[in-house]
Design goal:
Largest sheet: 5 strands, antiparallel
Mean pLDDT: 97
Bound molecules: guanosine-5'-monophosphate
CATH class: Alpha Beta
CATH architecture: 2-Layer Sandwich
Shape: globular
């Protein structure tokens, strides 16, 4: 069996995290290096490496991640808005090869993101 990804180890409690939400399909925890007052990673339990590896089979799962983002944003009090981001691949500056949706908020976010 392939080695567990960092985020699978977090899901299994082998690496500690500040978990804010979990269900049968995904987990959500605070980023260790937050880029905004609220910075949460929403991670499917299924270890899909990146956005580029999604298949038709994952369509509902991805929708689920966004609905979780909306719910968590409300729980975090992000009533004035927030941003969700999937970094993908080398030029997208993805560093952890396990699909994750960033949820950022709590300040005015700049655009373009750089
Ligand atoms: P990426 O650059 O792949 O889009 O995002 C990976 C994110 O995971 C980064 O924002 C980074 O700070 C976060 N991260 C990396 N290692 C850990 C960890 O061990 N715990 C937590 N909570 N976040 C991590």
């Amino acid at each position: 069996m392939a080695d567990k990804t960092l985020f699978q180890k977090i899901a299994d409690g082998e690496i500690p995290s500040d978990m804010v939400y979990e269900d049968e399909l995904c987990i959500a925890f605070r980023d260790i290096q937050p880029q905004a007052p609220v910075h949460i990673l929403i991670v499917p339990r299924k270890p899909i490496p990146s956005l580029d590896d999604l298949t038709k089979e994952d369509q509902e799962l991805v929708g689920h991640l966004f609905l979780c983002a909306k719910k968590i944003a409300a729980n975090e009090g992000l009533h004035r808005g927030y941003r969700t981001v999937f970094n993908c691949g080398e030029e997208g500056l993805q560093t952890v090869p396990h699909l994750h949706l960033h949820l950022l908020g709590g300040r005015v976010l700049r655009w373009p993101p750089g």
